[in-house]
Write a structure and sequence with these properties.
By secondary structure, the protein is an alpha/beta fold. Helices cover 51% and strands 10% of the residues.
Length: 204
Amino acid sequence: MLIGYMRVSKADGSQMNDLQCDALIAAGVDITNLYEDRASGKRDDRPGLISCLKALRPGDTLIVWKLDRLGRDLRHLINTVHGLTGRGIGLKVLTGHGATIDTTTAAGKLVFGIFAALAEFERELIAERTIAGLASARARGRKGGRPYKMTPVKLRMAMASMGRPETKVSTLCKELGITRQTLYRHVSPDGQLRADGIKLLNRE
């Protein structure tokens, strides 16, 4: 069975999903198997997506108009597609930069595998830079005084560190020169971006 997912960012009616809907129906999705959200792609708790993922069964294929309709965070996309693959569900992207992704084919699986490898490589680089940065900070020593505010560089270091089980929050805050409150306002305990963290990176 083919199941389609649509998303627009705003819920005020200023954005329409007609183009996505027409494309999904043209691709063979029955109108009764369409799910939609009117929310940011950075949100993982989208009700339409949750219902869509629950409706999928082994052998089904999830179809989206563009890859960014499914999500705008690479880690979330990788995890979502790995979850689908593990359940025996395919993913097909109709247009845009991800149009070569069709995990029901060998070529499509290869393309997504490259994406996943690049994402893992990026995470390893961030972790390595974090370890080197913290070691350098310890070697220089830290002076007392008012903590510095969060910066994009500190935020990326915090994201990588918070995902590591051996990380001590108090030590991390000291090394980065921020308060625990500032840390948790930007990053969750498992290293996921929070609202203030998203805003900070968007200002770069």
